[in-house]
Every structure is written in structure tokens, then in C-alpha cells.
Amino acid sequence: MNMSRKEFLRTGLSTMAVAGLPTTGVAAAAVAGAGPAAQSGPVTITTLNPTIRLYPVKALGRMGDIRFGTAEIGTMMPFLGEGEITWTVSVPEAGRYALALCCSTTNAGQPVNVTAGKTSIDFAVPVTDGYFYPHPDGPDENPGDPSGESFFRLKEYYNFDRVPVGEFDLVRGVNMVRLRVAGTKGKEILRLRSVELTPVGARAAIAADKQRARMHRANTDWFARAGYGLWFHFLDLTTPPSGPRKPYEQAVNELDIEKLVGQVAETGAKYMMWAVNHGNPTCPAPIKSWEKLHPGWTTKRDLIAEMADALGKRGMRLMLYMNPPGVGGMALNPGTVNGIPGYNEDEYANQLIAVFREFGERYGPRVAGYWFDSTFEATECYPNLPFDKLNDAIKTNYPDRLVAWNNWVFPHETEWQDYFAGELTDLPVKSYGGRYVSYGTAKGLQSHVALRFDADWLHIKQDTPMPPPRFKAQELADFIKQCQAEQVPVTLGVGIFQDGSLGPQALPVLREVGRLVRGKRKKA
């Protein structure tokens, strides 16, 4: 079985018509939109995030009927009965704070007690509202690592939400924060991502920033009408069908883009997403700012430009997957998905800004959007990231470039994005209620679903066959058509070998999906 994407991280090293998109670098430079101007000089973070997030992994104490797995506690804490977690938090001035739990529960009125500073509140947590149905076979009795396949037997426990508890008075200096969960030992009753403390006096400024972010969102019309696209992870650890891997740059140089994009066109997809990096800091293009950060990991061949041009000729668009913690060289604690800051916050933000600007200046509208991964890891290390400044850099040369900041199953932490990352991974999943998510933590964002098609996002285990498609063509086509009716694009993660070939069963199923969704199709 292939490694999961999370396991790999831990163990790994507008309205413009598609036909009008430019297909050469010169043309792109000539028509690039008047996006945010490139700024000179580094960005300095002067505004701090008013919300303090307390994570189980950083607690002063944890006790009771809790599951205490090394990888799991890095991101969440499951309560299997009575238990408690305690933190200390220091505030510069006494004041009132709004406290919320980022958690999931299937129990209506799950009792908890929260004590913070001078205040103690008994609270009944409602059933959290997320995007997953329970698994038809119920949860796995021995779930193990939440990054493995057992995740898909725990779906009902991954409906995370941000649940307001009340207002608490904190004293100047050090305060104790304690969460007590009541319940009988047995099945899981509550899963905690974090406790959030936000100064009541900061509400107006937070609301103003959210509104400013929403006013800056890109036009998602083309994406809403796209129906579906294909997503490939072509990395240094991507394997050939058999035998040893080739060096990454050699594999990039030998990749037949016309053949690959032609096959994508045969499926009826309207866009293709390509992984720039994941795990190791690969970059299939001569990006100077990237080479400065990660010497030897860029390539002389500009695969991104060639893909954009080949797609554009066939009326499709290119989107890029990028893992920002890897761009900025953020290391991981062994066996976890918790980052280790390798730079101060200003330096990390400026590294991302430099890369985003260079991508924007180089590609203009030929890169239609980004899907940024592991946001919860980055913000846990760097809670004051200036998302407005990052957004300015991302939109360089093309203000309608789409952006999603993926927070996995956890409540998202920034409104400076255009569409929901939607890493729902498998079927069935709940309807979002329309083109714009109508409930839950992604409310208001352009809807989007990301599903694994065959591989577990990527195929990196040597001398193993590509897994077969997870869906029958009719099943997948029916789901896509349902999503189309609500203008919700679906991105299918398709496994790819290092020689650019797909699994032997992939294309027949994808072509049939295209026929069922788009009608009779000709070969590209």
C-alpha cells in the first residue's frame, strides 16, 4: 500500500476565457493583468494575530481517558471518556477574552467545563457540523495513526468546527486554562484541535480584516463552471512502473508534456493541478528565489510554462499545488506533522512572498490558481503570518489567480482565500449547499471537492503497481454531475509514474467519466 500524504510529510525528507489565454512567455508578459505591483524591500510584520491558540501537544498537563498517540497528539486529542488538559497562557494586560473550542463531537450536548483566569463555565458542546458522513461500517476499533487508512473509518470524528463557549476574564501575566471533559469511558466522545482565546476588544478589527479579505476575492466563474480537473504529484520520490528512480531533473527533462496533456484532454477535464513540491523542495522550473532557498532543487527546463502552454492550446487551465512549509524550509519534528521554525516570522513570510511574486511575474495568467497545503502546520509555527501581504504577492500579474489555504479537516484560519481546499478525499461527502459553502468553517468560500482517484495522492513506493480506481465511472460521473448542478468543481488526484504514464486502469475509467459527463468525446 502507498504511503498516505500526511505520512509522506512526516517521513519524507477571472472572467478571461480559456481560449484567450496566452500560450507563450512573451504574450503572457504583454497581457498580464494589472495585479498587485511588486514591492521593493522586505515585509515587516507589525500586526500580531489577536487570537491565541492552545494546542494539546503544547499543554502543561494531559490526563484521563485520552488517546495519546505521538502523531495524533501533534494535531488533535481524542477523549475516550473523562479527561482534562491544562495550559498556561500569558497576557500583557487584564481583559475579557472570547473562548472557543476547535473540536468535533458526535454527542449532542457533550458536557465540558472550561476554566480560564478568573472564570469557569460549564458548557454543552453541540454535535459539530462538518462535511463528512459516518463510515457505513462504523469507526475502526483500532484506529491507529489518523494519517493512515483508518481515517476513513473515523469520518464522523473529523467534522471539526469552531464552537464558541463564552467570555472569560484573564489577569495580567500568567493564567491557567483548563478543559475538563465529562463522560463514560468507551467510544470517542470529543476530539480537540485547540482552544482559542480572542480579546473581545479586537472583534471590530477582526471583522474589518475579514471583510477586506472578502472584498479582495478573485472571480471564480471559470472554476465554478469547470466541472472537474485532474491533479498529479510528480516528485523526486515518484517511482517508475518498475526499477530504480531517475534523478528528479532527468525525470523532468524526459517527461513528455504533449502526451500527458493530450491524455488529460481525453478525459474531459477543464484544468490540471500539478504539485510543485511535497516533502522535498522540488521545483520543476528555473525559479531564482526557490533556488536561493533550496540550491539544486530547481530545474533548467520550465515544465510549468510548457504545461500551461500545452493546456492552453486545448482550452484547459493550469493550477499549482504548493506546500508552503517546504518552500520556507520548515522542518518537522520526527514522527509528527508539527513544524520546527527554521527562521523568524518576518524571514519566513518574506521567503514565501519572494517565491509567489516571482511565479506571478514569470507566468501571469498562465497559472490560474494555487492550492496551498499544510496551512495548519505553518500557522502553528508562525501565528502572525501576514495573509494580506501574501495575497498581494500571490496575485502578482494576475488579480484573478485563485487561492486556497488548506487546513485539512480543521477550521480555517484566514479569509484571504478564494475557494475551499476541500480535501474530503473519498466518497460519500455532504453537499455544501451550493456554489458557495453555506455552513461550517468554510462558509462563504467557493465550493470545491478534492478526491483521491486511485493512488493515495502520490505513488512513491518502488516496484509496486498503481492502485486501481476507487470508483466506477458511473458512480464518479453521477457525483460530478450533482456537483456541476451546484457549480462545485471536483479535483481528482490521479497517480502518476516517473515516466509520465498513469495506472493501466485509470484512462479507460476517466475517459468514460468524460463521456458520461461531457457527452461523446474525440481523442485529443
Characterization of this structure:
This protein has helices at residues 5-11, 25-31, 70-73, 203-215, 221-226, 248-254, 257-266, 288-293, 303-313, 324-327, 345-363, 375-381, 387-394, 473-485, 506-518, and strands spanning 52-54, 61-66, 77-91, 95-104, 110-116, 119-125, 161-170, 173-181, 190-199, 228-232, 271-275, 317-322, 331-332, 339-340, 367-372, 402-405, 423-425, 449-452, 490-493. It is globular, with a radius of gyration of 23 Å. Helices cover 26% and strands 23% of the residues. Helix 7 packs across helix 9 (303-313). The chain is built from 15 helices and 19 strands. Strands 1, 2, 3, 4, 5, 6, 7, 8 and 9 form a nine-stranded antiparallel sheet that branches. It has an eight-stranded parallel sheet with strand order 16-15-12-11-10-19-18-17. Residues 8-38 have low confidence and may be disordered. The longest helix has 19 residues, at 345-363. It has 524 residues and is an alpha/beta fold.
A few lines on this structure:
This protein has helices spanning 5-11, 25-31, 70-73, 203-215, 221-226, 248-254, 257-266, 288-293, 303-313, 324-327, 345-363, 375-381, 387-394, 473-485, 506-518, and strands spanning 52-54, 61-66, 77-91, 95-104, 110-116, 119-125, 161-170, 173-181, 190-199, 228-232, 271-275, 317-322, 331-332, 339-340, 367-372, 402-405, 423-425, 449-452, 490-493. The protein is of the alpha/beta class. The radius of gyration is 23 Å and the shape is globular.
